[in-house]
């Protein structure tokens, strides 16, 4: 059914509360300031660990990662001890746009980071970060990609920050790339919106995060570089204008608007090498140099024999292996804040007896909990030992919940390198200036939104809140709740959803070819997400 008022969700990736308030108050983002005055604003707590790959799927499903299956941009395959890039076909639960579609509400989904390949939607979808190039897999309907390519021939799925040069000219080009990406999101939306009636728009501006990783220090007007300070603010002025254009497209002010971010951002204080800590405690054994040599030799021979030769898309994507001695490794952090134990019977070279599993998990968690910096301050903010984790063998196509999840205190970057070296490195030795924080933002404004209310919510509250704002029923069983402090004139009802199509085994059909995977891998490495 057509909604009485359109729904607009503006995903401002990585935007933290204090910076948002500052940019709104100083005139950099006047439209956001307007929404804050007419609506309600507050912090939005992210998932553990706080990362784009898992967080947006929690917002869109109303569930935690332990249910929807995304703990980051890539996942650990227990069957061959590799990590693989995660794709949209792995998602285990329904998304907000599917819930809207079930209520006959046509939806536009633009640039959601983990939505590649684009999935069927009653409306239009343009996938985002993790999309290698414009092709039939990048949009729904598939033929929409041809129109996008024609109208926006240089469409940017991800801003590659040119970090090899540090001069002002390169910095300005980087900022312009971010602004161009913002503007292209609006162009793509208008093209999709012109195709006919639509009820809801869900759009993410992922490039904010890319930019903040390299410009955080320049946000301070006393940074000592006024030119880069002004250039950085110019990107936020452009972002604000884009948000205003989209709101007007949706019928503002007669529009229910939710502005949210998947996590926050802040200055880097130092790097914490967790796998080195595990090695120091005897829980991880790095692979010897001879072992690395033979691994590379085997890979080279396979290529020469044509075993791993490039195939037409879709083709096999190559799992990334860790340089550890699996027969002697009991635990490994496979990505930031995600630890798996190496359990007998669950993994091919498991060495942890299932009866020792819980004691070892508790021991590692306690070690993390007791980590202190030079001033005696804790280095880990929160640690979880998910009850959904199991020592049982995981069937192909199903995901394994990590054994330990954790989030560092503000300012600490978690590193997964298994090479020997110091566990803690203060400062930031490379060009990265910013890192993630646990708190993002929630801002609601519109006919069904309260004004001047104090809000504190969780990321998985976004989906049920959006449904309630549209007076649509909320499926029973969601982890999230409608944010009562935000909603007014909203009728909150619940229904049983008996469609279990999303609970089946995920497709194991590969999506990326080798070159595309290398491209995505480099994007993740540029932002410090992969070593």
Describe this structure in words.
- With 531 residues, the protein is an alpha/beta fold.
- It folds into two domains: 6-268 and 432-526, Alkaline Phosphatase, subunit A; 270-287 and 322-426, no CATH class.
- The chain contains 14 helices and 23 strands.
- It has helices at 17-25, 30-38, 52-61, 65-68, 96-102, 144-151, 168-193, 207-215, 226-249, 274-280, 289-304, 357-369, 462-469, 514-526; strands at 6-12, 40-45, 74-77, 82-85, 107-110, 123-126, 139-140, 200-205, 255-260, 264-267, 270-273, 320-321, 331-335, 338-341, 380-384, 404-408, 412-415, 424-426, 434-437, 439-445, 457-458, 474-475, 494-495.
- The strands form six sheets. It has a nine-stranded mixed sheet with strand order 7-6-5-8-1-9-20-2-21, sandwiched between helices. Strands 13-14-16-15 form a four-stranded antiparallel sheet. A three-stranded antiparallel sheet has the order 3-4-12.
- The termini are far apart.
- 51% of the residues are buried.
How much of the sequence is in beta strands? Answer: 15-25%
Q: In which range does the helix fraction lie? A: 25-40%
Specify the structural class: alpha/beta
Sheet of most strands: 9 strands, mixed
Radius of gyration: 23 Å
Any idea what the CATH architecture of the largest domain is? 3-Layer(aba) Sandwich
How many DSSP helices? 14
Total tally of structural domains: 2
Low-confidence stretches: 292-305, 307-318, 504-508
Mean pLDDT: 89
Top CATH class of the largest domain: Alpha Beta
Inertia-based shape: globular
Strand order of the largest sheet: 7-6-5-8-1-9-20-2-21
């Amino acid at each position: 059914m057509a909604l009485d008022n359109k729904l607009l969700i503006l995903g401002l990736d990585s935007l933290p509360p204090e910076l948002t308030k500052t940019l709104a108050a100083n005139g950099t983002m006047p439209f956001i300031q307007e929404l804050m005055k007419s609506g309600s604003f507050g912090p939005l707590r992210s998932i553990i660990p706080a990362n784009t790959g898992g967080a947006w799927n929690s917002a869109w499903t109303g569930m935690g990662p332990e249910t929807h299956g995304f703990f980051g941009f890539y996942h650990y395959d227990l069957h061959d001890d590799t990590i693989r890039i995660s794709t949209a076909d792995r998602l285990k639960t329904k998304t907000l746009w599917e819930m809207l579609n079930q209520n006959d509400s046509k939806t536009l989904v633009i640039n959601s980071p983990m939505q590649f390949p684009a999935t069927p939607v009653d409306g239009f979808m343009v996938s985002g970060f993790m999309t290698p190039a414009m092709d039939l897999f990048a949009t729904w309907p598939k033929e929409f990609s041809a129109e996008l390519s024609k109208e926006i021939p240089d469409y940017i799925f991800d801003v590659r920050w040119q970090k090899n040069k540090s001069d002002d000219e390169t910095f300005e080009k980087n900022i312009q790339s971010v602004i161009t990406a913002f503007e292209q999101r609006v162009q793509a939306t208008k093209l999709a919106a012109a195709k006919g009636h639509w009820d809801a728009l869900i759009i993410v501006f992922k490039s904010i995060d890319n930019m903040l990783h390299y410009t955080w220090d320049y946000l301070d007007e006393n940074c000592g570089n006024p030119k880069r300070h002004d250039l950085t603010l110019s990107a936020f002025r452009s972002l604000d204008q884009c948000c205003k254009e989209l709101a007007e497209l949706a019928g503002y002010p007669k529009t229910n608007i939710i502005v949210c971010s998947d996590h926050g951002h802040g200055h880097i204080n130092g790097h914490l090498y967790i796998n080195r800590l595990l090695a120091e405690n005897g829980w991880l054994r790095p692979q010897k140099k001879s072992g690395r040599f033979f691994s590379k030799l085997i890979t080279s021979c396979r290529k020469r024999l044509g075993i791993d030769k490039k195939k037409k898309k879709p083709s096999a994507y190559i799992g990334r292996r860790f340089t550890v001695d699996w027969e002697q490794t009991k635990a490994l952090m496979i990505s930031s804040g995600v630890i798996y134990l190496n359990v007998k019977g669950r993994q091919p070279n498991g060495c942890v007896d299932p009866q020792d599993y819980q004691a070892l998990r508790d021991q590692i968690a306690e070690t993390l909990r007791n980590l202190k910096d030079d001033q005696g301050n804790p280095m880990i903010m929160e640690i979880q030992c998910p009850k959904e984790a199991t020592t049982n063998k995981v069937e192909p196509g199903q995901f394994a919940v990590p054994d330990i999840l954790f989030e560092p205190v503000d300012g600490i970057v978690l590193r997964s390198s298994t090479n020997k070296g110091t566990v803690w490195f203060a400062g930031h030795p490379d060009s990265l200036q910013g890192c993630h924080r646990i708190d993002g933002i929630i801002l609601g404004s519109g006919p069904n939104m309260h004004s001047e209310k104090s809000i504190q919510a969780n990321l998985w509250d976004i989906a049920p809140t959006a449904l309630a704002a549209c007076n649509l029923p909320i499926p029973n069983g969601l982890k999230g709740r409608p944010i009562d402090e935000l909603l007014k004139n909203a009728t909150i009802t619940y229904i049983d959803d008996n469609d279990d199509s999303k609970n089946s085994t995920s497709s194991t059909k590969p999506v990326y070819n080798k070159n595309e995977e290398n491209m995505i891998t480099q994007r993740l490495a540029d932002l410090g997400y992969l070593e």
